Amino acid sequence: MSFKRRSLAITCAITSSIVLAGISGTAAAQSSYVSGSSGLLSSSELHPETPAPLDAPKNIIYMIGDGMGYNHVSATNLFETGQTMHQVEGEPGSVTPVEGGTPVQAFEGAEWTQLAQSTFQDGNSYDPERAWADHNYVNENFTDSAAAGTAMATGVKTTNGMIGINPANEPAKNTSEYAIEKGKAAGVVSSVPFNHATPAAWAAHNSNRNDLHAMAEEMINSDLNVIMGAGHPFFDNNGNPITEADEDYMQASQYERLASGETDFTFVEEDADFEALANGQVESDKYFGLAQVEDPLQHDRDGDSVTPYDVPLNDVVDLSTMSKAALNVLNQDEDGFHIMIEGGAIDWAGHANDMARDIEEVQEFNKAVETVIEWVETNSSWDETLVIVTADHETGYMTGPNDDPNWSAMTGAAGIVPNHGWHSGNHINQLVPVFARGAGVSDIVAAADQVDPIRGNYIDNIEIANLTFNKWW
Ligand SMILES: [Zn+2]
Protein backbone atom coordinates (compact mmCIF):
# COMPACT_ATOMS: atom_id res chain seq x y z
CA MET A 1 0.00 0.00 0.00
CA SER A 2 1.51 3.32 -1.02
CA PHE A 3 1.57 6.47 1.06
CA LYS A 4 -0.92 8.16 -1.26
CA ARG A 5 -3.27 5.23 -0.90
CA ARG A 6 -3.17 5.66 2.88
CA SER A 7 -3.85 9.37 2.66
CA LEU A 8 -6.76 8.74 0.33
CA ALA A 9 -8.33 6.35 2.82
CA ILE A 10 -8.08 9.00 5.55
CA THR A 11 -9.73 11.58 3.31
CA CYS A 12 -12.52 9.14 2.55
CA ALA A 13 -13.11 8.38 6.21
CA ILE A 14 -13.59 12.08 6.90
CA THR A 15 -15.92 12.42 3.94
CA SER A 16 -17.95 9.43 5.14
CA SER A 17 -18.75 11.08 8.44
CA ILE A 18 -19.95 14.17 6.56
CA VAL A 19 -22.15 11.97 4.39
CA LEU A 20 -23.54 10.20 7.46
CA ALA A 21 -24.46 13.59 8.93
CA GLY A 22 -26.66 14.20 5.90
CA ILE A 23 -28.46 10.86 6.07
CA SER A 24 -31.90 12.31 6.80
CA GLY A 25 -31.76 14.12 3.46
CA THR A 26 -31.03 10.84 1.71
CA ALA A 27 -33.95 9.13 3.43
CA ALA A 28 -36.28 11.90 2.32
CA ALA A 29 -35.09 11.54 -1.25
CA GLN A 30 -35.67 7.79 -1.07
CA SER A 31 -39.22 8.11 0.14
CA SER A 32 -40.04 10.50 -2.70
CA TYR A 33 -38.87 8.01 -5.30
CA VAL A 34 -41.74 6.65 -7.37
CA SER A 35 -40.79 3.75 -9.56
CA GLY A 36 -43.73 3.88 -11.90
CA SER A 37 -47.33 2.95 -12.50
CA SER A 38 -49.52 0.02 -11.61
CA GLY A 39 -48.32 -2.27 -14.41
CA LEU A 40 -45.31 -3.46 -12.44
CA LEU A 41 -44.32 -7.07 -12.90
CA SER A 42 -42.38 -8.79 -10.18
CA SER A 43 -38.85 -9.88 -11.01
CA SER A 44 -39.84 -13.55 -10.94
CA GLU A 45 -42.57 -12.90 -13.50
CA LEU A 46 -40.06 -11.16 -15.78
CA HIS A 47 -37.17 -13.58 -15.57
CA PRO A 48 -37.32 -16.69 -13.43
CA GLU A 49 -33.51 -16.60 -13.15
CA THR A 50 -33.43 -13.05 -11.76
CA PRO A 51 -31.13 -12.98 -8.73
CA ALA A 52 -32.55 -12.43 -5.25
CA PRO A 53 -33.05 -8.77 -4.30
CA LEU A 54 -29.88 -7.14 -3.11
CA ASP A 55 -29.08 -3.89 -1.41
CA ALA A 56 -28.02 -0.68 -3.09
CA PRO A 57 -24.74 -0.92 -4.95
CA LYS A 58 -21.59 0.49 -3.40
CA ASN A 59 -19.90 0.53 -6.82
CA ILE A 60 -21.56 1.18 -10.17
CA ILE A 61 -19.86 0.05 -13.40
CA TYR A 62 -21.93 1.47 -16.28
CA MET A 63 -20.80 -0.03 -19.59
CA ILE A 64 -22.11 1.45 -22.83
CA GLY A 65 -21.67 0.06 -26.30
CA ASP A 66 -22.33 3.24 -28.28
CA GLY A 67 -24.76 2.31 -31.04
CA MET A 68 -24.91 -1.35 -29.89
CA GLY A 69 -28.47 -2.39 -30.71
CA TYR A 70 -29.70 -5.97 -30.42
CA ASN A 71 -28.52 -6.88 -33.89
CA HIS A 72 -24.99 -5.64 -33.21
CA VAL A 73 -24.86 -8.12 -30.33
CA SER A 74 -26.37 -10.84 -32.53
CA ALA A 75 -24.02 -10.24 -35.47
CA THR A 76 -21.00 -10.61 -33.22
CA ASN A 77 -22.43 -13.76 -31.66
CA LEU A 78 -23.05 -15.20 -35.12
CA PHE A 79 -19.49 -14.42 -36.15
CA GLU A 80 -18.09 -15.99 -32.99
CA THR A 81 -20.13 -19.18 -32.77
CA GLY A 82 -22.87 -19.30 -35.40
CA GLN A 83 -25.36 -18.94 -32.56
CA THR A 84 -27.69 -16.02 -32.16
CA MET A 85 -30.32 -14.65 -29.85
CA HIS A 86 -32.48 -11.52 -30.05
CA GLN A 87 -33.56 -12.03 -33.70
CA VAL A 88 -37.02 -11.14 -35.02
CA GLU A 89 -38.97 -11.80 -38.21
CA GLY A 90 -42.38 -11.19 -39.75
CA GLU A 91 -44.60 -8.75 -41.55
CA PRO A 92 -45.54 -5.34 -40.13
CA GLY A 93 -47.90 -5.84 -37.21
CA SER A 94 -47.09 -9.55 -36.83
CA VAL A 95 -43.40 -9.56 -35.97
CA THR A 96 -42.30 -12.35 -33.64
CA PRO A 97 -39.05 -13.29 -31.91
CA VAL A 98 -37.10 -16.07 -33.62
CA GLU A 99 -36.97 -19.04 -31.29
CA GLY A 100 -33.74 -20.78 -30.42
CA GLY A 101 -30.22 -19.60 -30.00
CA THR A 102 -28.16 -19.95 -26.86
CA PRO A 103 -26.22 -17.35 -24.89
CA VAL A 104 -22.77 -16.59 -26.28
CA GLN A 105 -21.56 -13.67 -24.18
CA ALA A 106 -21.19 -13.90 -20.40
CA PHE A 107 -23.72 -11.10 -19.96
CA GLU A 108 -26.37 -13.14 -21.81
CA GLY A 109 -26.13 -15.89 -19.20
CA ALA A 110 -28.59 -16.91 -16.50
CA GLU A 111 -26.95 -14.85 -13.72
CA TRP A 112 -27.73 -11.69 -15.65
CA THR A 113 -31.05 -9.88 -15.83
CA GLN A 114 -32.07 -8.88 -19.35
CA LEU A 115 -34.32 -5.91 -20.02
CA ALA A 116 -34.67 -3.29 -22.75
CA GLN A 117 -34.29 0.50 -22.69
CA SER A 118 -35.88 3.36 -24.60
CA THR A 119 -33.46 6.02 -25.81
CA PHE A 120 -35.47 8.99 -27.14
CA GLN A 121 -34.51 12.60 -26.45
CA ASP A 122 -36.52 15.44 -24.88
CA GLY A 123 -39.81 16.03 -26.70
CA ASN A 124 -39.88 12.67 -28.46
CA SER A 125 -41.29 9.28 -27.47
CA TYR A 126 -41.18 5.55 -28.30
CA ASP A 127 -44.42 3.80 -29.27
CA PRO A 128 -44.02 -0.01 -29.10
CA GLU A 129 -47.02 -0.74 -31.30
CA ARG A 130 -45.95 1.61 -34.09
CA ALA A 131 -42.34 0.45 -33.84
CA TRP A 132 -43.35 -3.08 -34.86
CA ALA A 133 -46.10 -2.09 -37.31
CA ASP A 134 -44.10 0.29 -39.52
CA HIS A 135 -40.58 -0.70 -40.50
CA ASN A 136 -39.51 2.93 -40.81
CA TYR A 137 -41.03 4.31 -37.59
CA VAL A 138 -37.70 4.06 -35.74
CA ASN A 139 -35.87 5.96 -38.48
CA GLU A 140 -37.35 9.26 -37.30
CA ASN A 141 -36.84 11.44 -34.22
CA PHE A 142 -33.83 9.56 -32.91
CA THR A 143 -31.51 10.71 -30.17
CA ASP A 144 -27.86 11.59 -30.58
CA SER A 145 -25.17 10.42 -28.16
CA ALA A 146 -25.10 13.78 -26.39
CA ALA A 147 -28.78 13.75 -25.39
CA ALA A 148 -28.70 10.00 -24.65
CA GLY A 149 -25.52 10.29 -22.60
CA THR A 150 -26.95 13.24 -20.71
CA ALA A 151 -30.14 11.30 -19.93
CA MET A 152 -28.19 8.29 -18.65
CA ALA A 153 -25.69 10.43 -16.71
CA THR A 154 -28.01 13.05 -15.23
CA GLY A 155 -31.50 11.51 -15.27
CA VAL A 156 -32.69 14.47 -17.36
CA LYS A 157 -33.77 14.22 -20.99
CA THR A 158 -32.42 17.00 -23.15
CA THR A 159 -32.05 18.31 -26.67
CA ASN A 160 -29.72 16.62 -29.17
CA GLY A 161 -26.25 18.18 -29.11
CA MET A 162 -26.32 19.11 -25.44
CA ILE A 163 -23.88 17.65 -22.90
CA GLY A 164 -24.95 17.73 -19.24
CA ILE A 165 -27.33 20.64 -19.89
CA ASN A 166 -31.10 20.49 -19.46
CA PRO A 167 -33.57 21.83 -22.07
CA ALA A 168 -33.73 25.15 -20.16
CA ASN A 169 -29.99 25.47 -20.81
CA GLU A 170 -28.97 24.90 -17.19
CA PRO A 171 -26.27 22.47 -16.01
CA ALA A 172 -27.61 19.11 -14.78
CA LYS A 173 -25.66 17.16 -12.15
CA ASN A 174 -24.26 13.86 -13.39
CA THR A 175 -23.71 10.68 -11.39
CA SER A 176 -19.91 11.17 -11.44
CA GLU A 177 -20.35 14.48 -9.63
CA TYR A 178 -22.90 12.91 -7.30
CA ALA A 179 -20.54 10.03 -6.47
CA ILE A 180 -17.81 12.52 -5.56
CA GLU A 181 -20.29 14.49 -3.41
CA LYS A 182 -20.99 11.25 -1.55
CA GLY A 183 -17.32 10.66 -0.87
CA LYS A 184 -16.88 8.11 -3.65
CA ALA A 185 -14.46 8.11 -6.57
CA ALA A 186 -15.58 8.59 -10.19
CA GLY A 187 -14.19 8.05 -13.65
CA VAL A 188 -14.83 7.72 -17.38
CA VAL A 189 -13.11 5.43 -19.90
CA SER A 190 -13.69 5.32 -23.66
CA SER A 191 -12.26 3.72 -26.78
CA VAL A 192 -12.95 6.99 -28.64
CA PRO A 193 -11.69 10.49 -27.73
CA PHE A 194 -12.00 11.14 -24.00
CA ASN A 195 -14.21 14.20 -24.56
CA HIS A 196 -16.55 12.61 -27.12
CA ALA A 197 -20.25 12.85 -26.25
CA THR A 198 -20.70 9.79 -24.04
CA PRO A 199 -17.74 10.23 -21.65
CA ALA A 200 -18.29 13.99 -21.70
CA ALA A 201 -21.87 13.46 -20.48
CA TRP A 202 -20.39 12.06 -17.23
CA ALA A 203 -17.77 14.79 -16.94
CA ALA A 204 -18.76 18.09 -18.57
CA HIS A 205 -21.54 20.60 -19.17
CA ASN A 206 -21.78 22.31 -22.53
CA SER A 207 -24.75 23.19 -24.75
CA ASN A 208 -22.65 22.23 -27.79
CA ARG A 209 -21.10 18.77 -27.99
CA ASN A 210 -18.67 20.07 -30.61
CA ASP A 211 -17.12 22.61 -28.22
CA LEU A 212 -14.40 20.03 -27.65
CA HIS A 213 -11.58 22.24 -26.38
CA ALA A 214 -13.84 23.75 -23.72
CA MET A 215 -15.00 20.28 -22.64
CA ALA A 216 -11.38 19.07 -22.59
CA GLU A 217 -10.57 22.02 -20.33
CA GLU A 218 -13.52 21.30 -18.05
CA MET A 219 -12.51 17.65 -17.78
CA ILE A 220 -8.83 18.49 -17.11
CA ASN A 221 -9.99 20.76 -14.28
CA SER A 222 -12.64 18.34 -12.95
CA ASP A 223 -12.75 16.39 -9.69
CA LEU A 224 -12.94 13.05 -11.52
CA ASN A 225 -10.35 10.51 -10.43
CA VAL A 226 -9.96 8.82 -13.81
CA ILE A 227 -10.27 10.03 -17.39
CA MET A 228 -9.03 7.61 -20.06
CA GLY A 229 -9.57 7.62 -23.79
CA ALA A 230 -8.19 8.51 -27.20
CA GLY A 231 -7.94 11.93 -28.85
CA HIS A 232 -4.14 12.42 -28.73
CA PRO A 233 -2.99 15.57 -30.59
CA PHE A 234 0.44 14.11 -31.46
CA PHE A 235 -0.56 10.73 -32.94
CA ASP A 236 -2.45 9.76 -36.10
CA ASN A 237 -5.20 7.18 -36.59
CA ASN A 238 -2.63 4.40 -37.09
CA GLY A 239 -1.00 5.17 -33.77
CA ASN A 240 2.03 6.80 -35.40
CA PRO A 241 3.57 9.96 -33.90
CA ILE A 242 3.08 13.23 -35.77
CA THR A 243 5.09 16.41 -35.28
CA GLU A 244 2.44 19.02 -36.00
CA ALA A 245 -0.41 18.86 -33.48
CA ASP A 246 -3.85 17.72 -34.67
CA GLU A 247 -6.05 19.69 -32.30
CA ASP A 248 -9.43 18.16 -33.19
CA TYR A 249 -10.00 17.04 -29.60
CA MET A 250 -7.32 18.63 -27.45
CA GLN A 251 -5.14 21.69 -27.87
CA ALA A 252 -1.38 21.15 -27.91
CA SER A 253 -1.17 23.48 -24.92
CA GLN A 254 -3.67 21.32 -22.97
CA TYR A 255 -1.60 18.24 -23.74
CA GLU A 256 1.60 20.01 -22.63
CA ARG A 257 0.02 20.98 -19.30
CA LEU A 258 -1.07 17.38 -18.66
CA ALA A 259 2.21 15.85 -19.77
CA SER A 260 4.35 18.26 -17.74
CA GLY A 261 2.39 17.67 -14.54
CA GLU A 262 0.78 21.11 -14.35
CA THR A 263 -2.65 19.63 -13.61
CA ASP A 264 -3.92 17.61 -10.64
CA PHE A 265 -3.82 14.44 -12.75
CA THR A 266 -1.00 11.94 -12.95
CA PHE A 267 -0.63 11.65 -16.71
CA VAL A 268 -0.02 8.40 -18.60
CA GLU A 269 -0.01 7.70 -22.32
CA GLU A 270 2.24 4.74 -23.14
CA ASP A 271 0.86 1.22 -23.38
CA ALA A 272 3.23 0.03 -20.63
CA ASP A 273 1.87 2.71 -18.26
CA PHE A 274 -1.70 1.49 -18.74
CA GLU A 275 -0.56 -2.12 -18.29
CA ALA A 276 1.24 -1.25 -15.05
CA LEU A 277 -1.96 0.27 -13.68
CA ALA A 278 -3.94 -2.76 -14.85
CA ASN A 279 -1.43 -4.92 -12.96
CA GLY A 280 -2.07 -2.96 -9.78
CA GLN A 281 0.92 -0.63 -9.78
CA VAL A 282 -1.15 2.39 -8.74
CA GLU A 283 0.68 5.38 -7.26
CA SER A 284 -1.89 8.18 -7.33
CA ASP A 285 -5.63 8.63 -6.79
CA LYS A 286 -6.07 10.67 -9.98
CA TYR A 287 -5.05 9.58 -13.48
CA PHE A 288 -5.50 11.05 -16.95
CA GLY A 289 -4.71 8.35 -19.53
CA LEU A 290 -4.45 9.48 -23.15
CA ALA A 291 -4.02 6.60 -25.60
CA GLN A 292 -1.49 7.28 -28.33
CA VAL A 293 -3.91 7.50 -31.26
CA GLU A 294 -5.95 10.32 -32.69
CA ASP A 295 -9.59 9.25 -33.02
CA PRO A 296 -10.82 5.81 -31.85
CA LEU A 297 -8.27 3.23 -30.70
CA GLN A 298 -8.77 1.06 -33.80
CA HIS A 299 -11.74 1.98 -35.98
CA ASP A 300 -10.14 4.71 -38.11
CA ARG A 301 -6.89 2.90 -38.93
CA ASP A 302 -6.06 2.73 -42.65
CA GLY A 303 -7.41 0.04 -44.95
CA ASP A 304 -10.83 -1.33 -45.84
CA SER A 305 -11.90 -4.40 -43.92
CA VAL A 306 -13.92 -7.18 -45.55
CA THR A 307 -13.73 -9.48 -42.55
CA PRO A 308 -12.83 -8.58 -38.96
CA TYR A 309 -9.07 -8.19 -38.33
CA ASP A 310 -8.05 -8.59 -41.99
CA VAL A 311 -6.29 -5.23 -41.49
CA PRO A 312 -3.74 -5.54 -38.65
CA LEU A 313 -4.70 -3.70 -35.46
CA ASN A 314 -2.94 -0.59 -34.19
CA ASP A 315 -0.36 -1.23 -31.50
CA VAL A 316 -2.20 0.80 -28.86
CA VAL A 317 -3.76 0.09 -25.47
CA ASP A 318 -7.14 -1.66 -25.64
CA LEU A 319 -10.41 -0.94 -23.80
CA SER A 320 -9.99 -3.96 -21.50
CA THR A 321 -6.61 -2.77 -20.22
CA MET A 322 -7.85 0.78 -19.74
CA SER A 323 -10.92 -0.51 -17.89
CA LYS A 324 -8.90 -2.66 -15.50
CA ALA A 325 -6.43 0.18 -14.96
CA ALA A 326 -9.25 2.58 -14.15
CA LEU A 327 -10.94 0.14 -11.76
CA ASN A 328 -7.68 -0.35 -9.85
CA VAL A 329 -7.36 3.42 -9.41
CA LEU A 330 -10.98 3.93 -8.34
CA ASN A 331 -11.02 0.94 -6.00
CA GLN A 332 -8.58 2.73 -3.67
CA ASP A 333 -11.56 4.70 -2.38
CA GLU A 334 -13.07 2.69 0.45
CA ASP A 335 -16.44 4.40 -0.03
CA GLY A 336 -16.89 3.01 -3.54
CA PHE A 337 -17.02 4.46 -7.03
CA HIS A 338 -18.92 5.18 -10.22
CA ILE A 339 -17.37 4.46 -13.59
CA MET A 340 -18.69 4.76 -17.14
CA ILE A 341 -16.86 2.57 -19.66
CA GLU A 342 -17.69 3.14 -23.33
CA GLY A 343 -17.07 0.99 -26.38
CA GLY A 344 -17.45 4.12 -28.45
CA ALA A 345 -16.60 3.09 -32.00
CA ILE A 346 -19.40 0.54 -32.45
CA ASP A 347 -21.30 3.69 -33.35
CA TRP A 348 -18.64 4.82 -35.83
CA ALA A 349 -18.79 1.45 -37.61
CA GLY A 350 -22.59 1.66 -37.62
CA HIS A 351 -22.53 5.10 -39.24
CA ALA A 352 -20.19 3.69 -41.91
CA ASN A 353 -22.36 0.53 -42.32
CA ASP A 354 -19.09 -1.37 -41.91
CA MET A 355 -19.96 -4.84 -40.57
CA ALA A 356 -16.37 -6.12 -40.29
CA ARG A 357 -15.28 -3.25 -38.06
CA ASP A 358 -18.60 -3.26 -36.20
CA ILE A 359 -17.88 -6.84 -35.14
CA GLU A 360 -14.32 -5.88 -34.15
CA GLU A 361 -15.63 -3.06 -31.97
CA VAL A 362 -18.35 -5.17 -30.33
CA GLN A 363 -15.75 -7.87 -29.62
CA GLU A 364 -13.45 -5.28 -28.04
CA PHE A 365 -16.34 -4.07 -25.90
CA ASN A 366 -17.30 -7.65 -24.95
CA LYS A 367 -13.69 -8.32 -23.93
CA ALA A 368 -13.85 -5.28 -21.68
CA VAL A 369 -17.05 -6.67 -20.12
CA GLU A 370 -15.28 -9.99 -19.47
CA THR A 371 -12.39 -8.13 -17.87
CA VAL A 372 -14.80 -6.19 -15.67
CA ILE A 373 -16.59 -9.40 -14.60
CA GLU A 374 -13.27 -10.98 -13.66
CA TRP A 375 -12.24 -7.81 -11.82
CA VAL A 376 -15.48 -7.78 -9.81
CA GLU A 377 -15.13 -11.43 -8.86
CA THR A 378 -11.47 -10.94 -7.84
CA ASN A 379 -11.56 -7.53 -6.17
CA SER A 380 -15.19 -6.98 -5.14
CA SER A 381 -18.39 -9.03 -5.27
CA TRP A 382 -21.85 -8.98 -6.83
CA ASP A 383 -23.23 -8.10 -3.38
CA GLU A 384 -21.64 -4.66 -3.51
CA THR A 385 -21.07 -3.93 -7.20
CA LEU A 386 -23.59 -3.35 -10.00
CA VAL A 387 -22.54 -3.90 -13.61
CA ILE A 388 -24.80 -2.59 -16.36
CA VAL A 389 -24.12 -3.45 -20.01
CA THR A 390 -26.23 -1.44 -22.42
CA ALA A 391 -26.24 1.03 -25.32
CA ASP A 392 -27.20 4.68 -25.75
CA HIS A 393 -29.05 4.00 -29.05
CA GLU A 394 -28.74 1.78 -32.11
CA THR A 395 -26.66 3.01 -35.07
CA GLY A 396 -27.06 2.02 -38.74
CA TYR A 397 -30.38 0.17 -38.37
CA MET A 398 -28.66 -3.18 -38.78
CA THR A 399 -31.14 -5.92 -39.76
CA GLY A 400 -31.43 -9.23 -41.54
CA PRO A 401 -30.83 -9.33 -45.29
CA ASN A 402 -34.45 -9.22 -46.48
CA ASP A 403 -35.88 -6.39 -44.44
CA ASP A 404 -38.27 -3.62 -45.46
CA PRO A 405 -41.16 -3.66 -45.29
CA ASN A 406 -40.81 -6.94 -43.38
CA TRP A 407 -38.38 -7.87 -40.64
CA SER A 408 -35.92 -10.73 -41.21
CA ALA A 409 -33.34 -12.54 -39.14
CA MET A 410 -29.60 -12.38 -39.75
CA THR A 411 -28.06 -15.73 -40.62
CA GLY A 412 -24.52 -17.02 -40.72
CA ALA A 413 -21.90 -19.32 -39.26
CA ALA A 414 -18.79 -19.03 -37.11
CA GLY A 415 -16.01 -17.03 -38.74
CA ILE A 416 -18.21 -15.59 -41.47
CA VAL A 417 -19.61 -12.06 -41.68
CA PRO A 418 -23.38 -12.59 -41.17
CA ASN A 419 -25.97 -12.02 -43.88
CA HIS A 420 -27.37 -8.63 -42.98
CA GLY A 421 -28.77 -5.31 -44.16
CA TRP A 422 -28.48 -1.65 -43.11
CA HIS A 423 -31.28 0.89 -43.24
CA SER A 424 -29.63 4.04 -41.97
CA GLY A 425 -26.35 5.88 -41.80
CA ASN A 426 -27.47 7.40 -38.53
CA HIS A 427 -29.11 6.43 -35.25
CA ILE A 428 -32.60 4.98 -34.81
CA ASN A 429 -35.30 5.23 -32.15
CA GLN A 430 -35.32 1.51 -31.33
CA LEU A 431 -35.12 -0.11 -27.91
CA VAL A 432 -31.63 -1.24 -26.93
CA PRO A 433 -30.68 -4.17 -24.68
CA VAL A 434 -29.85 -3.88 -20.98
CA PHE A 435 -27.92 -6.64 -19.22
CA ALA A 436 -27.42 -6.13 -15.49
CA ARG A 437 -25.95 -8.07 -12.61
CA GLY A 438 -25.21 -7.38 -8.96
CA ALA A 439 -26.41 -5.09 -6.21
CA GLY A 440 -29.43 -2.97 -7.14
CA VAL A 441 -30.64 -5.13 -10.03
CA SER A 442 -34.01 -5.72 -8.35
CA ASP A 443 -34.58 -1.93 -8.37
CA ILE A 444 -33.86 -1.74 -12.09
CA VAL A 445 -36.31 -4.61 -12.68
CA ALA A 446 -38.94 -2.76 -10.64
CA ALA A 447 -38.39 0.37 -12.74
CA ALA A 448 -38.91 -1.58 -15.99
CA ASP A 449 -42.67 -1.06 -15.93
CA GLN A 450 -43.23 -0.49 -19.64
CA VAL A 451 -43.70 -3.44 -21.98
CA ASP A 452 -42.67 -3.86 -25.61
CA PRO A 453 -44.45 -6.72 -27.41
CA ILE A 454 -41.13 -8.13 -28.71
CA ARG A 455 -38.45 -6.98 -26.28
CA GLY A 456 -40.50 -7.27 -23.09
CA ASN A 457 -40.18 -5.01 -20.08
CA TYR A 458 -38.13 -1.88 -20.57
CA ILE A 459 -36.78 1.07 -18.64
CA ASP A 460 -36.34 4.57 -19.97
CA ASN A 461 -32.79 5.89 -20.24
CA ILE A 462 -33.18 8.29 -17.29
CA GLU A 463 -34.12 5.62 -14.76
CA ILE A 464 -30.78 4.17 -13.66
CA ALA A 465 -29.41 7.67 -12.97
CA ASN A 466 -32.54 8.51 -11.01
CA LEU A 467 -32.21 5.31 -8.97
CA THR A 468 -28.62 6.35 -8.28
CA PHE A 469 -29.64 9.85 -7.17
CA ASN A 470 -32.85 9.06 -5.32
CA LYS A 471 -32.62 5.54 -4.01
CA TRP A 472 -29.12 4.04 -3.93
CA TRP A 473 -26.88 6.95 -2.95
ZN1 LIG B 1 -23.46 8.17 -33.65
From TrEMBL:
Q: CDD domains under this entry?
A: ALP
Q: Which SMART domains does this chain map to? A: alkPPc
Q: Work out whether the entry's keyword set contains Metal-binding.
A: yes
| Positions that bind Zn(2+) | 66, 347, 351, 392-393
EC category name: hydrolase
Q: Where is the active site?
A: 145 (phosphoserine intermediate)
Q: In the record's cofactor note, how is the cofactor described as bound?
A: Binds 1 Mg(2+) ion. Binds 2 Zn(2+) ions.
- InterPro entries in the record: Alkaline_phosphatase, Alkaline_phosphatase_core_sf
Q: Which cofactors does this gene product need?
A: Mg(2+); Zn(2+)
Q: What family name appears in the similarity comment?
A: Belongs to the alkaline phosphatase family.
What is this protein called in UniProt?
Alkaline phosphatase
Organism from which the protein derives: Corynebacterium glutamicum (strain ATCC 13032 / DSM 20300 / JCM 1318 / BCRC 11384 / CCUG 27702 / LMG 3730 / NBRC 12168 / NCIMB 10025 / NRRL B-2784 / 534)
